[in-house]
Amino acid sequence: MTKQEMIDALMLEDFSPIYHEADRIRKEVKGDDVFVRSIIEFSNYCTRQCKYCGINCFNQNVARYRMPLEEILDTAAQAIAAGYRTIVLQSGEDPYFNGDNAKRLGDIVRAIRALPTAFESEADGSQPILDITMSTGELPYEALSYLKDCGATRYLLRHETSDPKLYEFLHPCGTLADRIQCLRNIKTLGYATGSGFMVGLPGQTLASIADDVILLGTLECDMAGIGPFISSPDTPLEGYPNGETELTKRAVALCRIHRPELNLPVTTALGVLNPEERKDAFSCGANVIMKKVTPTKYKEAYQIYPSTIEETRIIEDRQTLDNMIRSLGRKPV
Ligand code: SAM
Fold first, then answer.
1. How far apart are CA 121 and CA 70, in angstroms?
2. Which atom number of ligand 1 is nearest to the Cα of residue 157?
3. pLDDT band at residue 100 using 50, 70 and 90 as cut-offs
4. pLDDT tens sequence across 225-261
5. Which of 89, 158, 222, 290 could join 196 via S-S bond, C-beta 3.0 to 4.6 A?
6. DSSP structural state of residue 36
7. 332 CA distance to ligand 1 centroid (A)?
8. CA-CA distance, 215 to 221, in Å (whole number)?
9. Which residues pair with 226 in a beta bridge?
């Protein structure tokens, strides 16, 4: 689809033919598997000023925490025992782990890599038994390379918005060019590369959403997280309207059509606005779901946007998710 065709599609009264096409492509290219990933939010310290984010450095109402290594490992071990084959390590841009301190992040990756797993290795040994995905913000090339050597296999870094002016308004201490360069470095280093964007940001246009979709192709992304913007208290965007779930699902569908081989999660933010929409997004092209395994005691402090705090029960939560996926006629992996 051209950019103009995408814009026209996003405005359609009846989008259902495009949803059907996205679902058909998903089935043809990705099959019925739904990849279930676990996320550990191991630190909410952040030096960035992202205007939408509840853990930005100016928010004084956040109790900051860093999970100790042993607790991260215990959580990862429980996730592996529950059947997860991917551990996503997410944090703010925490100086304790950045720059010269990247070794601390590397120690976490190495220790998780050393955990025993009960999974069968791929017969040809080509696939790692466990994927370790980093979601720790922009890092210099050397740190990215070091983490790869330590055993990280994937990296998630959303470009957030492809509109440079909007990007710079939202991120007083970053540029879109730097973000994109970091994504290119991630790709060059051989990580499975994930970008993505928010839908419904103040001032965002349909044309810039089409550019967001196109950028995923330009960057040759392997994964893309697309979620609605959710207004967060104690941030400069408090009180702004939330992004629309319908528009978000349309953007997911366009991504599936534009870049069929993408791994596309049904994002948590979509479920926060409407839990039913999360299920529904599986018929719009998505084939991945993420589940927080962060210990309950930290969840209140990792509110990037307001959401109901659910107690973490790693084994039971995974079973519930698997049952939900099977009820949709799909196969949890
Ligand atoms: N610091 C890392 C980074 O920048 O990639 C990872 C953590 S960051 C909190 C993860 C993602 O949360 C961001 O990429 C952003 O898209 C999303 N996010 C933050 N605040 C949000 C909000 N108010 N509404 C929707 N998504 C939000």
1. 26
2. 5
3. confident
4. 999 999 999 999 999 999 999 999 999 999 999 999 9
5. 158
6. E
7. 26
8. 9
9. 197
pLDDT digits (tens, 9 = 90+) for 285-328: 999 999 999 999 999 999 999 999 999 999 999 999 999 999 99
* 269, β-bridge pairs: none
Q: Look up the pTM and report it.
A: 0.96
Q: Are 222 and 263 in contact (CB under 8 A)?
A: yes
Comparing CA positions, the residue from 263, 268, 222, 264 lying closest to residue 245 is: 268
Instruction: Look at ligand 1, atom 14, and give the residue with the nearest C-alpha.
Output: 158
Q: What is the mean pLDDT of the chain?
A: 95
Q: Which protein residue has the closest C-alpha to ligand 1 atom 11? A: 158
CA distance 145 to 134: 12
Tell me the C-alpha distance between 232 and 148, whole Å: 33
Mutate to test the pocket of ligand 1, among 55, 59, 88, 158 (most ligand atoms within 8 A of CB): 158
CA-CA distances (angstroms) from residue 247 to 24, 203, 227, 287? 20, 15, 10, 18
Q: Give the residue whose CA is nearest to atom 19 of ligand 1.
A: 53
DSSP string, 46-90: -----TT-TTSTT-TTS---B--HHHHHHHHHHHHHTT--EEEEE
- State CA 30 to chain mean position distance: 19
Position in ligand 1 atom list of the atom nearest CA 46:
1
The pLDDT value recorded for residue 118 is 65
Quick one: tokens of 239? Answer: 């009180």
Residue that is written with structure tokens 């918005």 in the block? 161
Distance 28 CA to ligand 1 centre (A): 31
What residues have CB less than 8 Å from 272, skipping those under 6 apart? 230, 305, 306, 307, 308
**For residue 118, what are its two tokens?**
């009960």
What's the pLDDT score for residue 123? 58
Closest C-alpha among 102, 190, 87, 82 to residue 132:
87
The residue to mutate among 51, 53, 91, 159, having the most atoms of ligand 1 within 8 angstroms of its beta carbon, is 53
Task: Report the separation in Å between the CA atom of 74 and the middle of ligand 1, taken as the mean of its atom positions.
Answer: 25
**Helix or strand or coil: residue 264?**
coil
**CB neighbour class for 313 (10 Å; exposed up to 12, middle 13-18, buried from 19):** middle
